[in-house]
Design goal:
The protein is of the alpha/beta class. Helix content is 28%, strand content 29%. The chain contains 13 helices and 27 strands. The protein has helices at 93-107, 117-129, 165-180, 187-194, 198-210, 263-270, 313-329, 400-414, 420-431, 487-490, 493-503, 513-521, 548-565; strands spanning 5-13, 16-24, 32-35, 43-46, 60-69, 76-87, 136-145, 185-186, 214-216, 222-225, 228-230, 233-236, 239-241, 256-260, 274-281, 289-296, 299-305, 335-344, 360-363, 372-380, 387-394, 449-453, 457-461, 478-481, 483-485, 507-508, 526-535. The N and C termini lie far apart (65 Å).
Length: 569
């Protein structure tokens, strides 16, 4: 334990209680109200002052919300708790970020997190006194009660769906058809999945068909999603229904493929192309596929949507087979992009690393050269009980795409106003403004960040603020590093966070290892993953649906920036 003491000086600022904690070597006996003994030796409580708050701006700060329970009424009352940090002069920026995060993480450990004020404050003081935090000079703890009428959502819980049953069922039918596209679904399949009658499913489908959102196939058995053109017309986007892909001349053959796994991801990517034509083979199961061929800059590009993705046997076979079929059909492909939504890795104190909703992660190598890290399973050592990861890692043998990304980064660093992806984003939003969903950026207050304290307890944490003097007005922040996945690590917040920090993961997606295996198996050595952040998990949460259209379009806009920079073979 450090020989330094820690003093606490309380004060009030409006309805905020400010507790100033300082590392001290000399005690001001005139200010002391109480001095701890025994296990609390070195902890000093000073008399309350009229103003013991900030004399200079904090170097880092972190805010979180607690829901306090009234022991008499049982009511939940929200409170903001803000930690402000000052460091000794020798502390580097990395020291500041890591120490503030470690301090906060230790403070909110599930088995130690105090449920009362006294122990919360005492834990803050004892941690500051520890040698581990010797570079910390001062911490202010600010406690502010919040208006309970404005803080109705308990952290970690999805907002209740207040829509009528009919509205929810309509959305569920549309979601199922979009997920299956280009596979078709029959009425009896929809009825079984949703647990409603076939007559009710048919009624919903007919209503959606009248709105131009779905269509019945010519055989009268199956239904599929109908791709709209724009807001000025009810016409369907031109498509050519095929039994097999027509033969293309060498000049018509695409050299770049883009793989998506979601209906809105494909709409976003297609919005980046000119002079495009879509070919679709509809099928109830198995062999359905959709290809859209067009131009991005001088490059001929083909896009597709995988009908299934994930760890079920059917999804694995489908993802691999559809990728192999794509690369077998278009044999002149040299580069492959996987573009769409994913979950960002929160960095609660590091502004630069923290990927917020709507930001874009571009897969670039970590210190081992990996751009995608898949955890196949966790392995526990029987003797030490330590957990290790059984990994599948992916490295493009041809770094052409990553080289272009490095050049773009260098150019934009030298020219801060050069952000061509923002122009492409606006063009995409204009092209897609007639769609059923909006591709506009959702409101800022829908970007909430939570931290899990064990299995059940959750607190809401404020996003890290930029360091003093740093101003960022960019709509899309770019982040660079590997993408990760694997059911054994993405299913829990703690496991996900530990895996991310160990391997430098910037985002988690929905298990694309089978797609990557197929790409490499088909001898395509230039590939990259671009992900728009839609949640803080793996991109599959219900809350992420709100951000998916915008974030997928942001990822597609950056993809277009990269493709346009690539040399034409």
């Amino acid at each position: 334990m450090s020989a330094e003491k820690v003093s606490l000086t309380p004060s009030k600022r409006g309805n905020t209680t400010v507790l100033r904690l300082d590392r001290i070597s000399q005690v001001d006996s005139n200010a002391v109200y109480h001095e701890g003994q025994g296990v609390n030796n070195g902890l000093i409580i000073n008399e309350q002052r009229s103003n013991a708050g900030e004399s200079e701006p904090a170097q880092l700060q972190l805010e979180f919300k607690c829901w306090l329970i009234n022991s008499v009424t049982g009511d939940k009352v929200p409170e903001s708790r803000q930690l402000k940090f000052w460091f000794k002069d020798e502390a580097s920026y990395l020291n500041k970020v890591s120490l503030s995060y470690d301090f906060f993480s230790e403070l909110v450990q599930p088995d130690k997190f105090p449920r009362d004020y006294l122990n919360f404050v005492k834990n803050c003081m004892k941690q500051l006194q520890s040698d581990r935090f010797s570079l910390l000079q001062r911490i202010d703890v600010e406690l502010t009660p919040l208006d309970s009428t404005q803080e109705q959502i308990i952290p970690g819980l999805e907002e209740a769906d207040m829509r009528s049953r009919d509205e929810q069922l309509r959305d569920q039918v549309l979601f199922l058809l979009e997920s299956a596209y280009p596979n078709i679904l029959e009425i009896d399949d929809l009825a079984k999945i949703m647990g409603i009658s076939e007559a009710e499913v048919l009624s919903i489908l007919e209503e959606l068909a009248n709105r131009g959102l779905v269509k019945r196939m010519e055989d009268q058995r199956g239904w599929t999603r109908r791709v709209q053109m724009d807001e000025t017309t009810a016409e369907e986007e031109p498509t050519i229904v095929i039994e097999q892909m027509p033969t293309l001349t060498k000049k018509q053959e695409p050299s770049i493929a883009v793989i998506t796994s979601n209906y809105y991801e494909k709409l976003a990517v297609d919005a980046m192309m000119d002079n495009k034509t879509t070919y679709v083979k509809f099928q109830a199961v198995g062999d359905a596929h959709v290809y859209t061929i067009g131009y991005i800059g001088d490059h001929r590009v083909v896009t597709t949507k995988l009908p299934q993705i994930g760890r079920t046997r059917g999804a694995q076979i489908s993802a691999g087979n559809n990728t192999t079929r794509l690369l077998g059909t278009f044999q002149q492909i040299e580069h492959v992009f996987m573009v769409g939504g994913a979950g960002g890795v929160p960095h609660y104190t590091d502004y630069y690393k923290h990927a917020r909703l709507g930001d874009v992660v571009m897969s670039t190598p970590n210190d081992k050269g990996h751009i995608y890290v898949f955890c196949d399973k966790l392995v526990e050592d029987r003797k030490t009980k330590e957990i290790s990861y059984q990994l599948k890692t992916y490295v493009p043998k041809d770094p052409c795409i990553q080289d272009r990304v490095s050049e773009i980064r260098d150019y934009c660093y030298a020219n801060p106003n050069a952000k061509p992806w923002l122009e492409f984003l606006r063009e995409g939003q204009e092209a897609l403004k007639g769609q059923e969903v909006s591709f506009a950026r959702p409101p800022p207050d829908s970007d909430k960040l939570f931290m899990h304290l064990g299995e059940h307890d959750v607190i809401e944490v404020a996003h890290p603020q930029p360091p003093q003097g740093v101003h960022n007005d960019s709509e899309i922040n770019l982040h660079f590093g590997p993408v990760g996945s694997g059911r054994s690590v993405i299913k829990g917040a703690t496991a996900r966070q530990e895996f991310a920090y160990k391997h430098g993961i910037q985002a988690f997606d929905k298990e694309f290892d089978q797609v990557l295996d197929s790409i490499i198996g088909n001898v395509k050595y230039s590939f990259a993953i671009i992900r728009g952040i839609i949640d803080y998990a793996d991109g599959s949460s219900n809350s992420g649906k709100k951000w998916l259209p915008y974030s997928a379009l942001a990822a597609a806009a950056y993809m277009k920036t990269v493709i346009r920079s690539m040399p034409n073979a």
